């Protein structure tokens, strides 16, 4: 019998054996980095392999990445600006401050998709006053607005970065916040995909990268996508229905566990035969892995998202007893359970797509939305801390851009703010980070991130660094990323 040349070469080392060996080496930290840690036990008592493919000793094992879609107002949340009240109703050029629109930073950090002559975004000149009060909170005295009464109690555990900036002034910025690329540029893998790509597993029965509540719609899938890294590194959305968290992995009616296992084994053998013929097929490799992982997850995932196992006190801490806070509370409590069980990166969308987009009725909108997430997020911080998990987990809380200091006038509006990529605030908490700390600032009106500020990939680089990964050494063969894709680690916020 004649053996095809491709199959012969594949059998010598280019086929499934070679791919499996490569995967095993990567999992053991030999391909992408060095093995710098040892076995560990999770707080659930499960022994896991903590040998991570890290470039240096990691400070954090896992990340909970909380994203509020739509763009919350930095000035009415974590960066209050008294000058907005003092000069309310005046135009920028009537204040004692330099007109921020004339600053070179404006064009540097502003990339409009429409032509510049018809674009009015980001240049509304009439100052809109603060829509909420604020005060200094905690021993650190960090200013937070009155819409965050529960989170304010934990401000001494937070590290605020007030000088973030990005370039997309439309909601494609949701993808830019996660990938680092403007919608007019070539797409790049998301931050969660890079973490998955660079790290070894802590629990082989759960995915490394899980998504709760998202992607918020089809055109935001890039926010969890792996693109050229391969589909096996894409985030896996989970349902919080413990009876059906993985619809794609459910057994058919009447099918036993043994029968399903035989079915997957048969599929696996067929895929291996195909892999010999097509050794470079990324989709096929991902499919093989997905079948293997899906079978293992059938027992692990329902247990991980079964919130009924939690005490009444814990569910109340997250606001599950209140319709206003229940959805966000469920997703954040599930995130804690997942990192507790070894998931590396949990991306949480506590609110629907665009919810925080307050072109009109900002006061009403933010009052309601802050009320829906304030208690659950505060509960997460408290829960992680009391369980000792805040020493191993990094929490990131952000949005795609801020809101304009000026009053939005489109459509006769007089109660809201437009999109504002030139300067806004995110906060972090947990492993390796300073507590009760503010890094960076915007100007007196909240317009520009001062100094160089931090482009969104600086946040990526910082989070990956905490996980033991050097973003500049995370490369995919045959791909060369731009310098801005790598970002700069914000060393100033580390302990």
What are the main properties of this structure?
17 strands; 495 residues; 9-stranded mixed sheet; 14 helices; Alkaline Phosphatase, subunit A; alpha/beta
Proportion of residues in helical segments: 25-40%
For the sheet with most strands, the description reads: 9 strands, mixed
Rg over CA atoms, rounded to whole Å, is 24 Å
Specify the CATH homologous superfamily of the largest domain.
Alkaline Phosphatase, subunit A
Structural notes for this entry:
The chain is built from 14 helices and 17 strands. It has 495 residues and is an alpha/beta fold. The strands form 5 sheets. Strands 5, 8, 9, 10, 11, 12, 15, 16 and 17 form a 9-stranded mixed sheet that branches. The longest helix is centred in the C-terminal third of the chain and has 25 residues. It is globular and about 75 Å long. The relative contact order is 0.20. About 10% of the residues have low confidence.
Secondary structure layout:
Blueprint: H1 5-14, H2 16-27, E1 34-35, E2 40-41, E3 47-48, E4 53-54, E5 62-67, H3 82-86, H4 104-108, E6 134-137, E7 142-145, H5 149-152, E8 158-165, H6 173-179, H7 191-198, E9 209-212, E10 236-238, H8 257-277, H9 282-304, H10 312-317, H11 326-340, E11 345-348, H12 362-386, E12 393-398, E13 402-403, E14 419-420, E15 424-430, E16 437-439, E17 454-455, H13 456-466, H14 483-486
Parallel strand pairs: 5-11, 5-12, 8-16, 8-17, 9-10, 9-11
Antiparallel strand pairs: 1-4, 2-3, 6-7, 8-15, 12-15, 13-14
């Amino acid at each position: 019998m004649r053996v095809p040349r491709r199959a012969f070469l594949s059998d010598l080392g280019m086929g499934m054996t070679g791919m499996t060996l490569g995967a095993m080496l990567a999992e053991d930290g030999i391909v992408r980095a060095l093995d710098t840690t040892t076995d560990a036990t999770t707080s659930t008592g499960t022994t896991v392999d903590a040998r991570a493919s890290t470039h240096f000793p990691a400070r954090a094992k896992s990340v909970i990445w909380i994203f509020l879609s739509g763009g919350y107002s930095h000035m009415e949340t974590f960066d209050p600006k008294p000058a907005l009240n003092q000069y309310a109703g005046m135009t920028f050029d009537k204040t004692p401050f330099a007109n921020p629109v004339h600053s070179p930073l404006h064009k540097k950090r502003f990339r409009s998709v429409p032509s510049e002559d018809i674009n009015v975004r980001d240049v509304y000149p009439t100052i809109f006053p603060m829509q909420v009060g604020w005060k200094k909170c905690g021993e650190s005295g960090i200013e937070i607005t009155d819409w965050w009464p529960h989170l304010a109690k934990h401000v001494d555990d937070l590290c605020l970065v007030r000088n973030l900036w990005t370039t997309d002034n439309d909601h494609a910025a949701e993808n830019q916040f996660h990938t680092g690329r403007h919608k007019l540029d070539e797409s790049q893998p998301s931050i969660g995909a890079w973490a998955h790509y660079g790290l070894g597993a802590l629990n082989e029965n759960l995915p490394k990268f899980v998504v709760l509540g998202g992607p918020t719609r089809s055109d935001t899938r890039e926010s969890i996508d792996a693109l050229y890294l391969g589909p096996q590194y894409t985030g896996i959305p989970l349902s919080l229905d413990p009876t059906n968290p993985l619809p794609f992995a459910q057994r058919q009616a009447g099918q036993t566990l043994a029968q399903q296992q035989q079915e997957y084994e048969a599929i696996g053998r067929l895929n291996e035969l195909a892999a010999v013929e097509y050794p470079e097929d990324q989709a096929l490799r991902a499919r093989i892995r997905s079948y293997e992982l899906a079978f293992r997850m059938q027992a692990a995932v329902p247990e991980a998202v079964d919130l009924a196992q939690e005490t009444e006190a814990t569910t109340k801490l997250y606001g599950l007893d209140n319709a206003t806070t229940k959805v966000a509370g469920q997703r954040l409590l599930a995130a804690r359970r997942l990192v507790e069980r070894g998931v590396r990166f949990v991306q949480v969308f506590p609110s629907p797509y665009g919810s925080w987009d307050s072109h009109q009725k900002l006061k009403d909108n933010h009052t309601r939305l802050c009320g829906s997430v304030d208690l659950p997020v505060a509960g997460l911080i408290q829960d992680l801390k009391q369980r000792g998990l805040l020493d191993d987990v990094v929490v990131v809380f952000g949005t795609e851009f801020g809101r304009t200091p000026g009053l939005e006038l489109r459509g006769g509006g007089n109660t809201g703010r437009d999109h504002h990529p030139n300067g806004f605030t995110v906060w972090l908490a947990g492993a390796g980070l300073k507590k009760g700390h503010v890094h960076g600032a915007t100007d007196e009106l909240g317009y520009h991130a001062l100094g160089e500020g931090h482009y969104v990939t600086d946040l990526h680089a910082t989070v990956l660094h905490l996980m033991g990964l050097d973003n500049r050494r995370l490369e995919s063969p045959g791909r060369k990323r731009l310098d801005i894709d790598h970002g700069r680690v914000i060393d100033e916020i580390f302990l």
